[in-house]
C-alpha cells in the first residue's frame, strides 16, 4: 500500500509493488513521480530523511539525506535569514536523489530504469493540473516575476510547459527537460549528479548567479543510515531520526502526554485540546533551548524525572507562553511532502522530504528541469544565537518520518509536511488514532491546530465554538482557521493491524492511497 500526496505518485509506487518490487523500490518510484507532479515541494535536488522497518533485519533504521553547510557558505556576510530566502546562496547539495538511490541500492530489488519509468512518462507526456497544483504554481508566479535572474528559466519550465501558459484546472503541464534528466539518471546512476556532468551544470549555474556551492560539496555528499531514537507511548514504540533532526520534540510531547488519560476526556473537547496544546508548546521550548542535543543530553531530556517536571507545568493551569519555531524570528511555511509505504514482506518506509520553500531557491538549472532547494534559509545565521551554524555543520531539520512498532513489529508509518508544525500535528493525529481509537483516515481528518510563537494558535473551525471560547479563556491566543487548512500539514500513513493494511491520506492536500 502507498499513501502519498498526489494520486499519480501513489499509483507509481503501487505499480512497482504490483510488479514484484518492495517498499524501498516503491519509495524511489513514488518520490521521483512526486518530483514531477508537485515540483514546488520536493524534487530530486531537495533534502529529507526516512525511517524504515527492515523486515529482513527485524529492525528500524533511519536514512539521512540532508546536506552539510557548504564549505564556502558566506556566513560572515549574513545577519538575517531573510537575506537568503531566494537565489543561489541558500542552495545546499541535492540530497533527495542520493536518498532514493541509497534505499534502492541497499534494500531494493529493482533497477532505476524501471523505478523512474512512471515519472519519466508523466514528465514527458504531461499531467492535468489539480487544485493544489494551480494554487502553488500560481501563488509563486508574482513573486518570482520580480526576480530577473530567476524568472526566465523558471517560467520556461513551469509556465510555458503548461497548455495555455497559465495554471488552470485541467491544463496539462509537460516537463520534457526533467524527463530527459530522469532518463539520464536512470541510465547512469547518481554519480551523474555527484561529480558528473549533471552536477557540473548545477554548480556552473549557481556560480553564474553568485552562489557558493562547489563540486567538492557535491562529491562529498552521501546519504547515510543511522540508528533512530525512540520513545514509548501507550505500549507502542515511536521511532524517528536522531538529532540534528528535531523530531525529538515529537517524542518529548508524547512522553509528556502519556501522563494524562486523554482517552477518558471528551474528544475534541476543551480538556483534550488544552492539554495537547500545552504539552506541544512546552516541548517546543525544550527543543529550541537544546538544539541538536548529544545522545547523553537527549536521554536526560526524555528521562522520567525531566518529563514529570514538564507534566507538572501542563497541570498547573497557568498560560504557557513561548516560541515554537526557532531561536531566530519565525520561519515561513515550508513546502514539504511525506509518503508512507508498506509491502507484503513486512517492510515499512516513511519519507519526509522538501525543497524548503515553495519552489525552493527559485533557481532552475537550464536544460535540466531541476529546481534547486533553499534549505540554508532554515539555518540559523543570526549573530549571537546559541544555535548559529558553521561551515561543515550538519543541517538541522524539523521533519519526523516515523515508524511505530508494537512488540517489535511495525504497525504504523506516519509522516507529514508543515515546517515546525510537523512536530505538532503528528502528535495530534497520533492521539486521535491511539487514545481515541479512530481509524487512521478519520484520525488524519480530525481537526488540528498549528501553534506559533508566543501564545498564538490557529485551530481549524470544525471544533465547537464553545470549546474555542474556553481555550481562549485558558490563555491561548486562538484564531479560527477555515474548516480545513494546509497550515496544519498534509499527513499520509499506512497502518497494519491483524494482517490488514489500512491507508490514510490528507484531504488538506491532494493525498491519495493506492493498494497493490
Automatic annotation (TrEMBL):
InterPro entries: GGT-like_enzyme (IPR052896), GGT_lsub (IPR043138), GGT_ssub_C (IPR043137), Ntn_hydrolases_N (IPR029055). It comes from the Bacteria. Pfam families: G_glu_transpept (PF01019). This is Gamma-glutamyltranspeptidase. It comes from Reyranella soli.
Amino acid at each position: 500500500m502507498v499513501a502519498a500526496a498526489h494520486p499519480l505518485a501513489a499509483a507509481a509506487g503501487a505499480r512497482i509493488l504490483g510488479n514484484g518490487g518492495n517498499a524501498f523500490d516503491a519509495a524511489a518510484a513514488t518520490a521521483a513521480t512526486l518530483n514531477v507532479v508537485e515540483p514546488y515541494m520536493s524534487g530530486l535536488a531537495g533534502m529529507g530523511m526516512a525511517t524504515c522497518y527492515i523486515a529482513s533485519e527485524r529492525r528500524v533504521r533511519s536514512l539521512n539525506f540532508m546536506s552539510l553547510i557548504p564549505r564556502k557558505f558566506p556566513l560572515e556576510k549574513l545577519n538575517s535569514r531573510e537575506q537568503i530566502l531566494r537565489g543561489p546562496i541558500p542552495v545546499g547539495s541535492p540530497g533527495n536523489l542520493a536518498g532514493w538511490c541509497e534505499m534502492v541500492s541497499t534494500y531494493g530489488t529493482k533497477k532505476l530504469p524501471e523505478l523512474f519509468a512512471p515519472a519519466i512518462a508523466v514528465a514527458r507526456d504531461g499531467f492535468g493540473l489539480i487544485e493544489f497544483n494551480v494554487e502553488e504554481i500560481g501563488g509563486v508566479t508574482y513573486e518570482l516575476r520580480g526576480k530577473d535572474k530567476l524568472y526566465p528559466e523558471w517560467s520556461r519550465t513551469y509556465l510555458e510547459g503548461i497548455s495555455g501558459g497559465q495554471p488552470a484546472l485541467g491544463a496539462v503541464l509537460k516537463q520534457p527537460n526533467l524527463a530527459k534528466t530522469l532518463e539520464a539518471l536512470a541510465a547512469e546512476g547518481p554519480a551523474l549528479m555527484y561529480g558528473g556532468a549533471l552536477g557540473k551544470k548545477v554548480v556552473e549555474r549557481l556560480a553564474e548567479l553568485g552562489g557558493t556551492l562547489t563540486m567538492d560539496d557535491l562529491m562529498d555528499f552521501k546519504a547515510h543510515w543511522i540508528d533512530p531514537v525512540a520513545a514509548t507511548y501507550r505500549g507502542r514504540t515511536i521511532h524517528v531520526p536522531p538529532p540534528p533532526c528535531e523530531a525529538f520534540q515529537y517524542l518529548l510531547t508524547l512522553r509528556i502526554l502519556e501522563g494524562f488519560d486523554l482517552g477518558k476526556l471528551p474528544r475534541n473537547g476543551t480538556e483534550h485540546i488544552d492539554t495537547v496544546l500545552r504539552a506541544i508548546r512546552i516541548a517546543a521550548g525544550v527543543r529550541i533551548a537544546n538544539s541538536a542535543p548529544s545522545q547523553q543530553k537527549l536521554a536526560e531530556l526524555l528521562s522520567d524525572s525531566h518529563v514529570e517536571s514538564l507534566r507538572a507545568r501542563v497541570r498547573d493551569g497557568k498560560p504557557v507562553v513561548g516560541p515554537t519555531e526557532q531561536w531566530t524570528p519565525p520561519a515561513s511555511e515550508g513546502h514539504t511532502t511525506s509518503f508512507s509505504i508498506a509491502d507484503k514482506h513486512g517492510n515499512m518506509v516513511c519519507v519526509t522530504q522538501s525543497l524548503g520553500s515553495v519552489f525552493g531557491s527559485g533557481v532552475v538549472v537550464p536544460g535540466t528541469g531541476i529546481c534547486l532547494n533553499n534549505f540554508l534559509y532554515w539555518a540559523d545565521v543570526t549573530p549571537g544565537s546559541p544555535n548559529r551554524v558553521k561551515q561543515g555543520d550538519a543541517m538541522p531539520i524539523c521533519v519526523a518520518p516515523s515508524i511505530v512498532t508494537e512488540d517489535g513489529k511495525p504497525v504504523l508509518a506516519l509522516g507529514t509536511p508543515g515546517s515546525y508544525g510537523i512536530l505538532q500535528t503528528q502528535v495530534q493525529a497520533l492521539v486521535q488514532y491511539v487514545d481515541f481509537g479512530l481509524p487512521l483516515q478519520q484520525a488524519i481528518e480530525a481537526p488540528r491546530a498549528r501553534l506559533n510563537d508566543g501564545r498564538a494558535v490557529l485551530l481549524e473551525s470544525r471544533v465547537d465554538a464553545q470549546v474555542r471560547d474556553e481555550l481562549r479563556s485558558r490563555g491561548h491566543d486562538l484564531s479560527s482557521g477555515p474548516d480545513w487548512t494546509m497550515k496544519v500539514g498534509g499527513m499520509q500513513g499506512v497502518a497494519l493491524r491483524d494482517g490488514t493494511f489500512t491507508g490514510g491520506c490528507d484531504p488538506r492536500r491532494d493525498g491519495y492511497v493506492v493498494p497493490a
